[in-house]
Fold:
Amino acid sequence: MDMTALLLSRIQFAFTITFHIIFPSFSIGLAAWLTVLEALRLATGRPVYRVIFDFWLKIFGLAFGLGVVSGIVMAFQFGTNWSVLSKMSGPIQGPLLMYETFTAFMLEATFFGVLIFGRSRVPPWFYLFSTAMVALGTTFSAFWIMVNNSWMQVPAGYIIENGAFVPNDWTKILFNSVVWSRFPHVLIASYLTGAFCVAATGAWYELRREYHAGSLIMLRMGLGLAAVLMPIQLVFGHLCGEYVNTYQPSKMAAIEGRWNDENPASEVLFAWPDVENRRNLFAITLPPPFGSLIDSDSLTAAETGLNSIPPENWPPVVIPFFSFRIMVGCGMLMLGLAWLGTYLSFKQRLERNRLLLWVTFLSFPLPFIAILTGWFTAEVGRQPWVVFGVLRTADAVTPFLTTRAATISLLIFCAIYVFIFAFGMFYIYRLIRTGPVRRLFETPCLAVPSRPLSLANADQSFPEPNHAGVGE
Amino acid sequence: MIMFWTSLLAISILLYVVLDGADLGIGILFGLTQGEERRRIMLNAVAPIWDGNETWLVVSGVILWGAFPSVYATLFSAFYLPLFFILTGLILRGVAFEFRDKTQRVRWIWDINFAGGSLVAGFMQGTTVGALVEGLQVTNGQYSGGDFGWFTPFAALCGIGLCLGYALLGACWLVKKCDGEVRDTAHRHIRILAISVLGFLVVVFAYALAEHLPILHRWIDRPYLFVFPAIGAIAAIVLALSILRHNDRWPFYAVALVRVGIWNAGTVLLALHHPVRHHHRRSCPGPVSRLCSGAV
Structure:
């Protein structure tokens, strides 16, 4: 077994999935937002909704495209780098991904075409329906992926037969408390991502004093949705903590920086975990029973420390410890911002408060950071297991994978992802900077009578500034 | 149950090869085309459907994983580098669809990515199938061919053949979907490509006979499989007739049928004769796919 190939495979998987998850989480939120906009437009008939819709659809298209191409890699990587895992877990993880492709990808691919090319070809209700189907598809996608990942976190409903995990109870795999606390947690996180990106864009236009009608809608709807969702997100986050405490004590101990068994437990707020000497440096700690209260909803519960877990079963303590705190920190900032902004917008003072507009504008990375660090907490905290408690990551890697092959693929991926990420971000930035009513650049008219309606045509059918939104 | 999954797998691979094959083929032809207007028309002929078409690749991958986990694990890990090259190509050409119309100054970057990515993806797919037909080196149920064991002259030949086949399919799609200059050029391409594909088919077949790849046994074992090349032959005749009569609708379906005939037989046999079940040093999984890789 080649240890370097193992390490490179882990880096590669972490890198590709980190890159990938940015885009689905963004597009899940945006798809839901687009559906709301289209419904509002049909209900109210206000053209400003159409302008905002068309604008965000372009950004959705970019995020969706990057999500599609980076997602195909994921479906292959299990086989290429983790052949032992895929051989063993194929009967469970394979069908779950199959359901994803049949329910999610088919809906997305079919109806996304309608969104881009069908505005003038299908009736309005069908266009709304297509938007909703794209949103539903992205939601299905999140569901199946969360079922899949939750099974790796807490394997359920299976027996081991000829060295493979064979499902014997699909209801246990699909409907257990772990899935149904993690799936909503991720789904709401995606909605929050969309909400904050929309609000930040609105704030930017407001700061530049442009597209006032549209930017105010973005700002208010984004912050308002976040204000409602953030508390719910905290509840589901807490539920996720409960499953970790029940099923993955090693992850919980690492997150909490808890070295010794405690009864009742204290709560480490901040510290630097010194893994070598098994202690926390510079710790700020809440006294007992805060730890038991937070982890187990109890004043007296005993909590496990890392010292009572064999070190070979420890995750790398520092990563989950810090990534968890960063996630929670981002969540708290978002909660404060969403509530304050919504309060001010009720008082009609939001658009005059330039400081808060600046803060909102600069807040758009928060949900992304929270999602990534949340994933790092869940995935790194699961180590050294790939299927928790059953299969070790080191035993799951392709046995004959060479360092050379793994190096080539990792380097190529890094180069390509950096390349397309840089351009993707730049184009999204430029679309947003250009705004809903200006054009990116004048496209020469190249119409050929029977050519299919194209994106460029959709561009040209954009409402002109004077009749759209601005004057509202 | 095995038969069900095998058929499902065959159907999804077939759909992928026909549908995304046309996409990739248009990408390859795109590289040979000059002029912004023509390129835009070509791109727009597949822009609404490319991600749907590519979904079939993921479908094929996950069906393989769910229904035949050990096949999935063995093949995908054995073809480590070719698969990464395919993915690389698909990523670069996929983003080109979205990125291309967001810029004017560096549009050429995405044009190169679109054409180059399509070419790399098509070539590596053909190479992979060619290597599979030749047989993977397996020791004790584990691949032992090394990082570049898949890259043989025969495999490379199949790669070129598949690119030609994809380009043919792409040209047929353009003829069906477009008008004017683009269609006329595609008409010319179809003739050249159809003849070259036929030529490659002959070369690949001759190579296979010369190398004594045990295809013929498999054919004689299962006479019903002759129905697939028969379909292929009929479709080839339809293609030839529709070219002669300047019909625009039929070529795509005809070429698609050629693939049905040849590829389907290949995938079914591949699934039935998977390398891991063979303990010879060089096992030979599927006979017919050599033809298919050459054919399209």
